[in-house]
Amino acid sequence: MITSKQNPLIKRVRALKDKKFRNLYGEYAVEGVKSVKEAFLTGQTVSAVVVTRRFTDAFTELFPDTETVSDELFGYISEEETPQGALAIIKKPDCELKPIFGDCLFLDGVRDPSNLGAIIRTAAATGITDVVAADCADAFSGKAVRASMGGIFRVNVYSGRREELLPLVKVPLFVADMGGENVFNVKPQGNFCLVLGNEAQGVSKKLKDSATKIVAVPMRKDFESLNVAVAAGITLYALLNNRKGV
């Protein structure tokens, strides 16, 4: 059993809380019994598993090199308020930038990692596999990974600057904005890209100017806005449901 904070594996897990080291090592951490098991079920490349004693036998069957740590030490490396006692280090997928011709999401400056993770979760649930994250929070941060509820294992996340990512999208852009047309009346003719903007400033002018159509979730006049993750779910399901021929 590992008990020292100076153990190389413990130091490595702690380092992955920082985006700089996630990029340097090409790895990220996933916490929770269900999430770690799901990583194996979806074929992720797992490089280490760390658990408390009560999970040693269960995870050793999945990963023979599973390491056991004390409850106190697990609390030291965990990012959760109430740690479950299971954690895996996973290789970040190599999402090479390439043209996108299918349905996708384009996230324009979504800065809250919990919102980003929740949107990824919705994308995965609807079968959308490509999420473009332009000038966004890190999709592989602990908060984003937890909020994705395993969605991060099922989508391709293309991260970078807006200018380099926008030309990759080869389908019509449907921009979500308060001043748009009622999304429940919009009927896409084929594949589309739903564009969602920053929590405070919305979608940038460049994306609006590139839009095929601007759409909005109808709301009462005295209500300002919806959370971007909630708006993403409503808008995405409406567009998919209304698509011509569906």
What coarse outline follows from CA principal-axis ratios?
Answer: elongated
Number of strands: 10
Average of per-residue pLDDT values: 94
Strands of the largest sheet, in order across it?
Answer: 7-6-5-9-8-10
Q: Could you give a quick summary of the protein structure above?
A:
With 246 residues, the chain is α/β, with parallel strands linked by helices. 34% of the residues lie in helices and 22% in strands.
3D architecture notes:
- This protein is α/β, with parallel strands linked by helices and 246 residues long.
- Helix content is 34%, strand content 22%.
- It has 10 helices and 10 strands.
- A 6-stranded parallel sheet has the order 7-6-5-9-8-10.
- Helix 6 packs parallel to helix 7 (142-148).
What features would you highlight for this structure?
10 helices; elongated; 246 residues; six-stranded parallel β-sheet; 22% strand; alpha/beta
Outline the fold blueprint.
Blueprint: H1 8-15, H2 19-25, E1 27-31, H3 33-41, E2 46-52, H4 56-62, E3 67-69, H5 71-77, E4 86-91, E5 104-108, H6 113-126, E6 130-134, H7 142-148, E7 156-160, H8 162-165, E8 173-182, E9 193-197, H9 205-209, E10 213-216, H10 228-242
Parallel strand pairs: 2-3, 5-6, 5-9, 6-7, 8-9, 8-10
Antiparallel strand pairs: 1-4, 2-4
